[in-house]
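Rather than argue in generalities, we have chosen a single entry, letters for residues, whole numbers for local backbone shapes, without further comment.
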Amino acid sequence: MNSHDVQSDGGLYEARQKIYPREISGRFQRLRTIAAWVLLGIYYLLPWIQWNGRQAVLFDLPERKFHIFGLTLWPQDFFFLTWLLVIAALSLFFFTALAGRLFCGYACPQTVWTEAFLWMERKTEGTRSQQMKLSKAPWSAEKLLRKGAKQFLWITFALWTGFTFVGYFTPIVELAGKIASFSTGTWETFWVLFYGGATYLNAGYMREQVCKYMCPYARFQSAMFDRDTLIITYDEARGEPRGARKKGSDYKAKGLGDCVSCTMCVQVCPTGIDIRQGLQYECIACAACIDACDEVMDKVGYPRGLVRYDTQHGLDGERRRILRPRTIVYGTLLALLITGFAVTLTSRNLVGVDVIRDRNALYRERADGLIENVYNLKIVNKDDQAHEFRISGEGIPGLIVDYLGPTVYVASGQVQSIPVRVQVPGGSLQGGADVVIRIESVPAGLTASSKARFIAPVN
């Protein structure tokens, strides 16, 4: 039994024992550290960046504007969010099929914030063995000081995280001023405390429990794995039978494998599993066990790679395949979706028009001989500035579009409803025909059009 095992008390559920992952250095740990610094840096610094006199990234819910540097999205662009979610899901499938749970080990918010909280815990309470010793020790001035320092750092960091989160929805400079003067609104206060509290609990206390019991990805990841998926594996053929031995001894003569049974791979695991028992759903592919095992192999003079990234086919001595049907399909779909998203986003029309027929009457025969249909135009201005529009129509000879004023003013981000009368000469049309209603900004530059059905009497 290792230090992570827990004796059951005979109940239905096993009590959780806190995991104290040992600090490790190595190439994969360096990659994880760099990823954590980059991701946390983006999260905490992005709201402070200014762009053309406003916050570069701001989701302004009251104004229904979503600013992302020079791009402004409106509620009418909501389908772009759906598109992004589909791309994100397919990306997860693609990278999982290629190399397992890379996202979990290097980019998942739970992993990144847990690493930050572990770093603060080590700075205040010491190494793994010191933390375990401190936890079992009776309360003293030193223990109170160390535990108190840790809680202070955790709570401060969590509250700053909640403050930054709300800063993406309320201008962060304005929010900082409100907090300094104790004048934040109810919802702003709630979300700062809620998001900060969630960070504090998830990264400080729940940690691996979130990955093991709350995250659904751990449950369905096996559906995306195959024998060519790159996963963290223990080379059982090389390592077994495991056992302790003296350095430099002829361990093979004793029938031993390369595993020295040091349990370092277990001690560094943030979820407390033993990779030597095979692939487990709790594994988040952080590769800490690889760094730990490589370090031990270097010390005893054995080749690295007893625990490594490999495929099932690779372990069996067969050819590894990166290109295979599922990766080709995922990759092709992902490339098409990303290309389509970029093209659609950059070429999207900043104005739009919808034509809705007035349901009170199909048509009206005027005294001057004209046939008239009434419509309600919904003009959408998604540009950062207001525009004036002219309205015109085509599709029937002699068509006239009658509306109030030579132009229609539509403010930035506004949806303006305009009643419009479309008239054609009597006798020029039997039954009905399609017409096109067009809007054009003044000065010219932005245009949009929509098709509508014009109804006329049948003689």
About this structure: DSSP finds 15 helices and 16 strands in the chain. Residues 1-8 have pLDDT under 50 and may be disordered. The longest strand covers residues 370-381.
